[in-house]
């Protein structure tokens, strides 16, 4: 049988993906120009052709991305074999992988492989107790180490979670070296540890580029982009749907017997809104990692496909901002980081 596989330089694929992103921006500019034309049969025909071009661009982007992506689940055997090699005789540990269906850039996995193995080693050596200690703590003899991958709002997170005992940051081997390596990706290292519950260490990295669907929202005279993947629904609130908490400075939305915290984005971004009354605005219910919130905005505009570009490389990390894009009219659009905002509340 003839081998149909070919080897392609990843840098060439990177250039191809960047060009696809440029096509998305150019197509958006064309759509903006056509939208400004007076109504006519010619305008209708142009809109149909631009819509068709957009569909072809999306397919091209999918094909180009697929070439360099692998399912994270294919790494399970590699990490499971590594764990077997490092588990001490007085410990029992089982590996689980969460998010295996998520596809990740192969070159990114190759670069992070040693870091992820280091986190697994830290969990086994410092987090997981011996079998005797776990029995004394009323735990199963066999501990669990999870390798978890999550992707949202232009960021990708690789976490190693164990159900051992609390771990001090100082106990994590070569933490300064870890941070130094992660900083090369403009990423962050986050550590959460709870006594007798376990430890979660996460490597969070911004994606260098991503094409996503976004909803343009307006607050005062400012327009932001909200990733549609985070949106659950939008409503026009009524007075009876708003419940006040404590001294009345905080409000909750009561929606189908569920209480959802309200976040006034005009306060978050320090913008003068069209109106501060909840009943005069719109509430967009968003969700991230099981958390929900209702964003108060003045109005929502059209949906569009945008090319997310990280801003850390040329500027600095900005809380609540996932990245930026170039709009059809050439202006810069700010993409909201739903995850960060919800975690801050």
Automatic annotation (TrEMBL):
SMART domains: CheW, H-kinase_dim
Catalytic activity: ATP + protein L-histidine = ADP + protein N-phospho-L-histidine
EC number of this enzyme: 2.7.13.3
Gene Ontology terms, MF aspect: ATP binding; phosphorelay sensor kinase activity
Keyword check for ATP-binding: yes
One Pfam family per UniProt: CheW
One term under GO cellular component: cytoplasm
Sections of the chain in a coiled coil: none
Keyword terms, alphabetized: ATP-binding, Kinase, Nucleotide-binding, Transferase, Two-component regulatory system
CheW-like domain location: 211-345
Biological process terms in GO annotation: chemotaxis
Gene3D superfamilies named in the record: Histidine kinase CheA-like, homodimeric domain, Histidine kinase-like ATPase, C-terminal domain, SH3 Domains
Keyword Transferase: yes
Alphabetized InterPro entries for the sequence: Bact_Chemotaxis_CheA, CheA-like_dim, CheA-like_homodim_sf, CheW-like_dom_sf, CheW-lke_dom, HATPase_C_sf, HisK_dim/P_sf
PROSITE patterns, per the entry: CHEW
UniProt function note: Involved in the transmission of sensory signals from the chemoreceptors to the flagellar motors. CheA is autophosphorylated; it can transfer its phosphate group to either CheB or CheY.
Protein name per Swiss-Prot or TrEMBL: histidine kinase
Taxon lineage: Bacteria, Pseudomonadati, Campylobacterota, Epsilonproteobacteria, Campylobacterales
């Amino acid at each position: 049988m003839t081998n149909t596989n070919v080897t392609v330089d990843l840098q060439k694929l990177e250039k191809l993906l960047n060009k696809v992103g440029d096509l998305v921006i150019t197509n958006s500019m064309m759509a903006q120009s056509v939208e400004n034309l007076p109504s006519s049969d010619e305008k209708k025909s142009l809109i149909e052709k631009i819509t068709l071009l957009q569909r072809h661009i999306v397919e091209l982007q999918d094909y180009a991305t697929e070439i360099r992506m692998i399912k994270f689940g294919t790494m399970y055997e590699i990490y499971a074999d590594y764990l077997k090699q490092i588990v001490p005789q007085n410990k029992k540990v089982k590996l689980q992988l969460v998010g295996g269906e998520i596809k990740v850039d192969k070159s990114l996995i190759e670069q992070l492989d040693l870091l992820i193995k280091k986190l697994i080693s830290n969990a086994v050596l410092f987090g997981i107790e011996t079998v005797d200690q776990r029995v004394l703590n009323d735990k199963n003899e066999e501990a669990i180490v999870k390798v978890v991958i999550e992707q949202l709002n232009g960021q990708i997170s690789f976490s190693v979670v164990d159900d051992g005992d609390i771990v001090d940051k100082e106990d994590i081997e070569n933490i300064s070296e870890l941070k130094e390596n992660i900083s090369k990706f403009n990423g962050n290292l986050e550590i959460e540890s709870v006594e007798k519950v376990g430890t979660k260490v996460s490597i969070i990295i911004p994606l260098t580029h991503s094409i996503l669907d976004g909803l343009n929202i307006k607050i005062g005279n400012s327009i932001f982009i909200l990733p549609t993947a985070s949106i659950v629904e939008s409503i026009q609130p009524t007075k009876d749907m708003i419940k006040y908490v404590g001294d009345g400075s905080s409000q909750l939305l009561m929606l189908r017997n569920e209480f959802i915290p309200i976040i006034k984005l005009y306060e978050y971004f320090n913008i003068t809104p069209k109106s501060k009354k909840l009943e005069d605005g719109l509430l967009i219910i968003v969700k991230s990692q099981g958390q929900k919130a209702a964003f108060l905005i003045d109005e929502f505009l059209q949906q569009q496909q945008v090319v997310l570009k990280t801003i850390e490389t040329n500027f600095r990390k900005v809380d609540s901002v996932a990245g930026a894009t170039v709009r059809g009219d050439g202006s810069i659009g700010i993409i909201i980081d739903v995850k960060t905002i919800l975690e801050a509340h």
